Amino acid sequence: MIAYKTALFKFPLYTFIVLLPFIIAVISAGIGYLRIPPEEVAGSIFRQIQAAFLGYCEGMTTTDVVIIQIRLPRIILAGIVGCSLAVCGAVLQSLFRNPLVEPYILGISSGAAFGAALAIGFGMLGGSVQLLAFLFGMISVFLAYTMAKTGGEVPVVNLVLAGIIVSALFTALTSLVKFFVDPHQLAGIVYWIMGSFSYASWSSLALITPPVMVCLLLITAMSWRLNVLSLSDEEAKALGVNVNRDRFVVLSLATLMTACAVSVSGIIGWVGLLIPHIVRLAFSSDNRIVIPVSASLGASFMIAADNIARAAFSFELPISVLTTVLGAPVFMILVRRRARRVWS
Amino acid sequence: MVLKVEGLRFGYGKGLVLDGIELELNRGEILVLLGPNGSGKTTLLKCINRILRPLDGVVFIEGKNYLEMNEKEIARAIGYVPQDHKPPFPYRVLDFVLLGRSPYLGTFSYPGEEDRTIALESLRAVGIEHFADKAYTELSGGERQLVLLARALATNSKILLLDEPTAHLDFRNTHRVLAAIRRIVKERNLSAVMTLHDPNLACRYADRIALVGNRRILRVGTPSEMITEELLRQVYGIEVRVLSLDGLKFAFVEGVP
């Protein structure tokens, strides 16, 4: 018997990775204008959970209000968005058989930006940015998918081309909206596109958390199937897999997840490309590992990046600028060190 | 007879690529499809395991009409070895071979301990178990071809389809891969249909050869019947000389074709 690694998950390491976003969340809740040590944050959260379950309440201190009402929703939102984008990136990279694909390849960001522009610029649907961004994000992917379909098959090359076309179309339409609105609304559109978590609230969290978590669970359950789908169509078919159906299911789940994330945060780049890459370079290319670890590291990275966005300066930095500035050098170092092994 | 192809016709869009293919495969034999580029050998392979749906005609797998079988049943009956290629992700060799267990796994399930044992056995059968922990992308072309063979064996199917298993391989690896295929087919009493380009390799490793040309099967027979100067001239359209040496036949081209 030769020696080979039997365990898929090495336990101490992976337990730490799963806990990481929660640890970072507790530390992050103490960061800001009012500094609060982690143990007080934990105490405050614990008291609120206790109050919620036992219906027993002592009233909230200022610290509690800052943590529970202001910081925690934003931190959780950043975590959920980071997790969604990283997982979606990993999924699409497998489906497109290309490690350089990002979550926005099918036009979801351009569609969502157009929806947001309609809401901010023209006050459509009562000016609900979230709803319109979500709808147009989904519409754009649906359009790309329909365009790519030929005779019951959805070839990957067609999908890429259709994504480019849909992106271009919605980008042009967004420019048109920007052209017609007044400068104040124009600024609103531009800021939304740069991405921010500053509008986070428990109510928006309540809307997006359930669908994102369901998608995450289903995608994790399908992570082995995702390995098969990363082979060529003919190989996957020869292995008895219904390629077109399974690809549609995974794509729908990833799209729903990303549309939820984008609708509440705007367009945040790089996370979906960077995180799955780091996971593949540092751990494994097996999607059974890539998906859950990307979810965890994506959430951790986004929470940490948002700490800088909201607390490093007296004004708020656009989160997308930060994720790129932080991500690019890390990516560069990793690629230089390990590229030969993985991309040869 | 484990496989029977009857009246198979196939075309991509307009025009037929295959027209009225009749073919039989016996248990324990290696049938080599020999023919020029574009003669439809690869298309025929893909029609046999229904990666491509024929316009007309039917394939019987162990006596069962394959139009009445679902994808998983076909995948369990027929293992497919595609032409060598590099996948974009550096999967571990063992995980890559485990993909061969897909016909037995549901959409939401992971391979278990039994699947892992079968995958390891398949790697051992092709003689590369020491690569189990390596990245697939780090292997040489010949080694990758053996991994693809192991993946097909992991489906536990009795029939193998191999699409030019020696494309891009050097002299030594060509023979190493073909010898492994022949040994495993004989040891396990499997049956294989394989496309090849070199009549000499076909002669050496096939039990029977089917000459493919002009959208149909021209002749089927033993290597010594098929590797003749007239038949090769007819199939490839060039002057060929065939010599016999130690009971083997050698085809070669004299001068400029």
Overall tally of structural domains of chain A? 1
Spatial gap, N to C terminus of chain B: 39 Å
Structural class of chain B: alpha/beta
Residue-averaged pLDDT of chain B, rounded?
93
Strand adjacency order, main sheet of chain B = 6-7-8-3-9-10
Task: State the CATH class of chain A.
Answer: Mainly Alpha
Shape by Cα distribution of chain A: globular
CATH fold-level topology of chain A: ABC transporter involved in vitamin B12 uptake, BtuC
Helix content range of chain B: 25-40%
**CATH superfamily of chain A, please?**
ABC transporter involved in vitamin B12 uptake, BtuC
Level-1 CATH class name of chain B: Alpha Beta
Largest interface: A-B, 39 and 42 residues
Provide an overview of this structure.
The complex is a heterodimer of chains A (344) and B (257). Chain A is an all-alpha fold. Chain A has a single domain (18-343), classed as ABC transporter involved in vitamin B12 uptake, BtuC (Orthogonal Bundle). Chain A has 14 helices and no strands. The longest helix of chain A is centred in the first third of the chain and has 34 residues, at 62-95. Chain A is globular. Chain B is of the alpha/beta class and 257 residues long. Chain B has a single domain (3-252), classed as P-loop containing nucleotide triphosphate hydrolases (Rossmann fold, 3-Layer(aba) Sandwich), CATH 3.40.50. Chain B has nine helices and twelve strands. A six-stranded mixed beta sheet of chain B has the order 6-7-8-3-9-10, sandwiched between helices. A four-stranded antiparallel beta sheet of chain B has the order 2-1-4-5. A two-stranded antiparallel ribbon of chain B has the order 11-12. The model of chain B has no long low-confidence stretch (mean pLDDT 93). The chains are: A mainly alpha (344), B alpha/beta (257). Chain A binds chain B through residues 2-6, 94, 97-99, 218, 221-225, 227-228, 230-232, 234-242, 246, 249, 280, 284-286, 288, 341-342, 344, and chain B through 46, 49, 51, 71-76, 78-80, 82, 85, 87-92, 94-95, 99-100, 102-103, 105, 107-111, 116, 120, 129-130, 132-133, 135, 137-138, 155.
